Amino acid sequence: MTGIITYSFKGLNYVSLLRLSAFHRYRYCYLNPFVTPPFTNASFSSSLPSHSLGSKPATLMEVVKAASRPSVAGSIAIRADQKSYTYSQLLSCACNISRLLSSTNIKINNKGVSGHGNLGGARIGIVAKPSAEFVAGMLGTWLSGGVAVPLALSYPEAELLHVMNDSDISFVLSTEDYGETMQSIATRCAAQFSLIPPVSSTLSSPNMTDELQTGEIEADGSLIDENPALIVYTSGTTGKPKGVVHTHKSISAQVKMLADAWEYTSTDQFLHLLGLRIFFTLISLTRTIHVHGLFNALLAPLYAGSTVEFIPKFSVRHIWQRWRESYPKNGAKADDAITVFTGVPTMYARLIQGYQAMDPEQQALSAYAAQQLRLMMSGSSALPQPVMHEWETITRHCLLERYGMTEFVMAISNPLRGARKAGTVGKPFPGVQVSSDLLVVSDLIVSVVLQRDIQGLPNVI
After folding, report:
1. Regarding beta strands 400-405 and 375-378, do their DSSP bridges make them parallel or antiparallel, or are they unpaired?
2. Which residue of 23, 137, 201, 455 has the fewest CB atoms within a 10 Å radius of its CB?
3. Is 230 within the bounds of a domain?
């Protein structure tokens, strides 16, 4: 049985087929561009302040410029490997990457591109562990008018070659730890290669605001709303992975929606351990870039001016320890105390097991610390109710469940404030409407279609 989801991102209207599966309590949503419905606001509306500059809704470029202002630039954007990086340092590296790309003779891909960014829509592959360099690589690509294509080294080589050829990648950016492998693969795909410059603790550009607004990087001309900005590949459950194209406008609308709905602010500190390249599930390691880690726990927090702390791998001991350090029971709250944590059900099950293995004193300290976090969320697979109830018993947090897909990122969520119903993913976000008109169709899941196109497969259905 299916229904219809309609939603609008800053004037981009979408219609989705919603399939209610008898085998899974989540809903499968696929975009269909052939119908543009009259837009009405859904329930679950928000009266939270808008993340905008002046009266104009914030675009990605405006967010970048806002991050370069003196009042924000010195704030910590990323923590990784025991190092901290400010927004200014991140943007300085992004500008260096933009210059590097703009000075190279890269094959232009004009499909779906308007305006005259230096790269003209060229696809730029990015290979890096969750780090400041990964973020700088994406921003530098966008500042140059390119399309970022995050790549997962966890792909088997044949699958990695498929993604690179399918997305028509013409240049690969990689950190040094993957440099030798990616240079070899880039050569086989006739793509150019360069290492990502490390994000430095010193600024190469003394005045980021002037450079971004009027200087050598014509970012406003590169970040046209309707231009493609990001290609994220599906996991390939029903065939080879397919590239999902997101525009600057849709990314901007999505991160604003998430930041508003979950009240992300510049005082938030995120503990990020959801792989940007791989995704941990109960039974396997899925070889894909996952929007949960990329949008919910990285782009939306950075949009709000939050701090994102990367953990290289999931560690039960480290997470409980990090929370105890943030909120010592007999001491002052740490300056870098974690406020938001988002994970998948398996992580919470493992954290419960770790808690149960502690002695009573350690349990008391750990439970107290976890209770102090502002928000804990779960997604990407169904949260077993016994796990949800046990977690609430320990931490007093009723986990906020939400639902999304690679094709449209997030669409449905339990409320930040108010009752959350176990076993459900909540109601539509503001700007999302779910029709109550249901019709019976084939049991086959409908093929994916985007408003613009699936990379390499225009108008497929």
Report:
1. parallel
2. 23
3. yes
Q: In the chain, what is the straight-line distance between the N-terminal and C-terminal CA atoms, in Å?
A: 18
Kindly give the interhelix angle for 385-395 and 360-371, rounded to the nearest 10 degrees: 100
How many separate helices (H) and strands (E) can be counted in the chain? 15, 24
**pTM reported for the whole predicted model:** 0.80
Domain assignment present for 434: no
Which distant-in-sequence residues (6+ apart) come within 8 Å of 346 by Cβ?
A: 280, 281, 282, 381
Closest CA to 1 of 440, 447, 445: 440
Q: Which two tokens stand for residue 130?
A: 């969750």
**CB proximity list for 207: less than 8 A, separation 6 or greater:** none
Q: Report yes or no on 152 lying in a domain.
A: yes
- How many domains is the chain partitioned into structurally? 1
Closest CA to 392 of 401, 381, 382: 401
Query: What 3-state class would DSSP assign to 81?
Result: coil
The tens digit of pLDDT for each residue in 265-313 reads 999 999 998 655 433 333 333 345 678 889 999 999 999 999 999 998 8
322 assigned to some structural domain: no
Rounded to whole angstroms, the Cα distance separating 302 from 268 reads: 10
Residue located via tokens 């290669």? 193
Those residues with Cβ within 8 angstroms of residue 257's Cβ, 6 or more apart along the chain or in another chain? 9, 410, 429, 430, 431
**In the block, which residue shows the tokens 């905008």?**
52
Cα separation, 153 vs 182, in Å, equals 9
Phi then psi for residue 56, to 5 deg, are -95, 130
- Domain limits for position 152: 46-245
Alpha-carbon distance 234 to 162, whole Å?
13
Instruction: Compute how many other C-beta atoms are within 10 angstroms of the C-beta atom of residue 423.
Output: 11
Distance, in Å, from the CA atom of 423 to the CA atom of 99, rounded to the nearest integer, reads 49
Radius of gyration of the chain (CA): 21
Query: In angstroms, how far is CA 369 from the centroid of its own chain?
Result: 27
Q: What's the CATH number where 112 sits?
A: 3.40.50.980
In the block, which residue shows the tokens 């493992």? 350
Show the DSSP H helices in 34-190 as ranges. Answer: 60-67, 70-73, 87-102, 132-143, 157-166, 179-188
Task: Give the model's confidence band at 447: pLDDT under 50 very low, under 70 low, under 90 confident, else very high.
Answer: very low
According to DSSP, residue 455 is labeled E
Handedness of CA 138, 141, 147, 151 (dihedral sign): negative
